[in-house]
Amino acid sequence: xxxxxxxxxxxxxxxxxxxxxxxxxxxxxxxxxxxxxxxxxxxxxxxxxxxxxxxxxxxxxxxxxxxxxxxxxxxxxxxxxxxxxxxxxxxxxxxxxxxxxxxxxxxxxxxxxxxxxxxxxxxxxxxxxxxxxxxxxxxxxxxxxxxxxxxxxxxxxxxxxxxxxxxxxxxxxxxxxxxxxxxxxxxxxxxxxxxxxxxxxxxxxxxxxxxxxxxxxxxxxxxxxxxxxxxxxxxxxxxxxxxxxxxxxxxxxxxxxxxxxxxxxxxxxxxxxxxxxxxxxxxxxxxxxxxxxxxxxxxxxxxxxx
Length: 306
Ligand SMILES: [Zn+2]
What we know:
Blueprint: H1 2-25, E1 27-31, H2 34-44, E2 48-52, H3 69-75, E3 78-81, H4 91-98, E4 110-112, H5 145-162, H6 167-191, E5 199-202, H7 208-213, E6 217-221, H8 232-244, E7 249-253, H9 258-268, E8 271-275, H10 288-305
Parallel strand pairs: 1-2, 1-3, 3-4, 5-6, 5-7, 7-8
The structure holds zinc ion.
The site of zinc ion has 7 residues, from loops.
């Protein structure tokens, strides 16, 4: 009996040691958004401990800063972000307070997912004074699965920089995840056939990548420009032009106000569709693949009903 207990204790000690050494080896990653956390986990698996700051229901250009963000950033080995100034209104201030040099821009722990993305709507002239939230081009590539393959590659490269010993594991895992995305992209492109040629108006200019990927036309926005609120004159002009051009859908991203989107849809005969902008924006969008699934399914349902 004594022997049995001794064996049990030795086994328990070994298990604890294994668990603690695994924990010690893990890279601590903080992602700004749940989609980036999901993809980091797909690539890093047990070699990473990853958490997201935003939950997916927030306005990307104004995520409320919680005090809990600071210690999480302070402990992180790596930070995964959308980039292109998408997080400009909240992340740089947090980085300053957290004072963790490992995750500052230019350091190995700063993993900017936009580095290889083909950025749309890059302005020829940068004028922040106009209030434009997209001074580096449109940062909402998270709605395009092809761009997110490039983001996944940036994450794998970034994890490899921080843990060179396991770079080949990250490479293998990103290849597997990319293959899974490719399979889904082929399916999504097929399923989206009824959406081809449809014209959409969104609240904010954040659906351009989604529209282009699936053959829709991003016709206009309720905002005058990214981050510039609508005026009655702008809405009147938009509605006129939507009626003349027979715009099919008004899309309200769930983090923008509902009433005006409904009014514009009612005034023009367009169908109102409500979509999450991010993984976590609705319970069904629990990871990146189910997020694109949800958005396409919702659009297709609306197209069938119209
Ligand atoms: Zn934006």
